[in-house]
Specification:
single chain, alpha/beta, three-stranded parallel beta sheet, 42% helix
Length: 81
């Protein structure tokens, strides 16, 4: 299910990446929710059900691969790109 506008979950621990990506995404018609570590990203993915996720690999609390694995193991989030 696509949101209108499409919703992107940006998960990264670098404030500069948040500024760069969220600005570019919003200028191109996307809505953005932001998380600062893998656990927060996982919580927001489950709550917001974004259409797409941008996920950093190295983060505190829970790294990107572990976060992605957690999301992909849950059947109701398998459509997230």
């Amino acid at each position: 299910m696509m949101h209108a506008p499409p919703l992107v979950l940006l998960t990264d621990d670098d404030p500069q990446i948040h500024d760069l990506y969220s600005t570019a995404l919003k200028q191109n018609g996307f809505a953005v929710v932001e998380a600062w570590n893998g656990q927060e990203g996982l919580d927001l993915a489950m709550k917001e059900k974004p259409d797409f996720i941008i996920l950093d690999v190295l983060m505190p609390v829970m790294d990107g691969p572990k976060t992605l694995l957690e999301i992909k193991e849950n059947e109701k989030y398998k459509e997230i790109k």
